[in-house]
Amino acid sequence: MEMKSKIATTVVLLAFHFPSEAFELSLQEQLFQQALQGTKCEQIPNNGRYCKYQFGTTLEIGIKDVGGTDTVVGFHNSNIKNKLYAVLYFGCIAIVPGEAHPRNYNHDYGVFISPVSGLVYQTSNECRATLK
């Protein structure tokens, strides 16, 4: 119980010394966290590693045989009219703002999924490096 008290005291002291904006995530970081939380991978017999990426109810992507010789990308639910949608960008899957997204993001807003590693990256260069 004493450890919880120390943690609470530390949080209060940090909040006192730093403005609340320092604890808020940027839109880019929020999207990256959403991508990480929406990623589920599993090994499927005869199909290799299968990863599903879900962004709420508006976007869903699946990759069969991640990093294998028979990789297939499925855009199960992707629509440019929604807040987010997916496109193939230099071999990576880019999650970018759609028409329904408020125009409050900067030029580099988006995340990238590698069909080779199955991981989510914050930049296209990071993702493209996995394709070599």
How is the secondary structure organized here?
Blueprint: H1 2-17, H2 27-37, E1 39-44, E2 48-55, E3 59-64, E4 72-77, E5 84-89, E6 92-97, E7 111-113, E8 120-121, H3 124-129
Antiparallel strand pairs: 1-2, 2-3, 3-4, 5-6, 6-7, 7-8
Distance between the termini: 51 Å
Helical/strand content category: alpha+beta
Main beta-sheet annotation: 4 strands, antiparallel
- Using only C-alpha atoms, the radius of gyration works out to 18 Å
Question: What is the strand content?
Answer: 25-35%
* The number of domains: 1
The largest sheet has its strands arranged as 1-2-3-4
Which spans of ≥5 residues are poorly predicted at pLDDT below 50?
3-22
Shape from CA axes? globular
Beta-strand segment tally: 8
In round numbers, the mean pLDDT is 85
Short description:
By secondary structure, the protein is α+β, with helices and mostly antiparallel strands.
